[in-house]
Amino acid sequence: MEGMKTIIAMLLSGKNVSDYMPDVVNIVTENIHLKRLIYYFLIYTCESGSSEILMSINSFHKDLTDGSALIRASALRAISSMRIEEILPILLISIQRAVNDFSIYVRKAACLTLLKLSEMEDVDNDTLIAMVQKLIADNSMIVVGPAIHVMSELCPDRLDFLHASFRRICREIENVEMLYLPSVIDVLMQYARAHLDQGFVGLGGGRYNPDLKLLLASVFPLLHCSSPAVKVSIATLYLNFNFEESWTEAAKALLSFKDEYDELAYVMLATILEFVKRRPAVFHPFLTYFYIGGKDSFSVARYKMDIISYLASDMNIISVIKELMAVTRNSNSKIASHAITTIGLIALRDATLSDICAKNLIILLRTKVDYVAAESIVVLRKLITKDPVKYSKVITHCAKISDSLTVPRALASSIWIIGHYCDKIPTLAVENFRKLVLGFREVED
């Protein structure tokens, strides 16, 4: 026991323990705890010692009929991890027996074993799919959850397997293990889109297909679980079927992104953005949640700023502009540049906010930071091109400050604006042209 604990500790710390394979496979014991350690070792090292395992396969096969469900499940997981074609017939018989086992724990292990088995070349996929169908019809949701997950990987087009179980799965979905809930919700959503009467979906007056309404109502309590993946799956379900009754709760559940790692926050923010596009009022009280943090990656910061651009209004434009102007001083040039782009987006989306946005872009134009000045003039060009009459003062200002621009990209854009709209500023255009010609040979290409 002490030896196995030491080897497992070495395995978990990343050390190579394959040299211990002959010693481990030759251990004969009735101790359940020791057997579990042996099978844990085999699951992670069996590929490196196929010859030693084949010599001891009989003892492992014997454990598949052990009186303890824990040992039977562990033995099944370990043997299925062995990528050895010679034991495929034994493995198939073992899984078929496990699918009909009286223990929930063993049947669950059989579900996950099917995925490993599908990776072998000589296996008959039709046999595996038949077992998946049987497991989906299981009485226990502890088995049905992983079975649906396996179906989504092994045969995602066989949604007909859910015909007989759809309502029962919806009613008992809270009993599915959290690890498999996202897969289950996604598969149920695909089933609803493929097989439920779409004539009821998305109509006014809250008319929904009764089975679809059952699904939408069943997942609602799961919004309060701790898993970000579950929250995103439920929110996506509500968005897909335009279930506005629960949009507010689903959207607020996603605000927990602040406590997640960047990778999880990125996915949650992408979902929030879809809600914000359709119903921004829900998130107006939570504007500060989307302010940029010092440790935010560019991917997270970009989504936050995109969300801010939809939440900007007459009521909060001052604080929004202050935040974005502060972000332009960020040490990450990508984040700073996107903040400038966001100011331009706000101006383009809401004409009432365009004046304050243009004023702040002109302020940024005077900076000596290369990428800030260059991005500012590019955004101003877009605003001017959309409505030259409205932004005629901006054209004049670009012409007046062109002398002070030292960043080549910014100066080039300024010259383009002056040349393109010279009819609106004839005197300034001629004067700028005179100054530019004087030093033309010395400027950068």
Which SSEs are present, and which pair or pack?
Elements: H1 2-12, H2 21-25, H3 32-45, H4 50-55, H5 57-63, H6 69-80, H7 88-99, H8 104-118, H9 125-136, H10 141-154, H11 166-171, H12 181-195, H13 210-218, H14 228-240, H15 247-253, H16 262-278, H17 298-311, H18 317-327, H19 333-349, H20 354-365, H21 370-386, H22 392-401, H23 408-420, H24 426-438
Helix pairs in contact: 1-3, 3-6, 5-6, 6-7, 6-8, 7-8, 8-9, 8-10, 9-10, 10-12, 12-14, 14-15, 14-16, 16-17, 17-19, 18-19, 19-20, 19-21, 20-21, 21-23, 22-23
Please write the string of helix (H) and strand (E) elements.
HHHHHHHHHHHHHHHHHHHHHHHH
Indicate the low-confidence ranges by residue numbers: none
What is the fold-level CATH name, i.e. the topology of the domain at 1-123?
A: Leucine-rich Repeat Variant
Q: Evaluate the radius of gyration.
A: 31 Å
Shape: elongated
**Which structural class do you get from the secondary structure elements?**
mainly alpha
Going by CATH, the homologous superfamily of the domain at 1-123 would be Leucine-rich Repeat Variant
Number of helical elements? 24
Distance between the termini: 74 Å
Named CATH architecture of the domain at 1-123 = Alpha Horseshoe
The mean pLDDT is: 85
Strand content: under 5%
Describe what is shown at a glance.
The protein is mainly alpha-helical. The chain contains 24 helices and no strands. It has a domain at about 1-125: Leucine-rich Repeat Variant (Alpha Horseshoe).
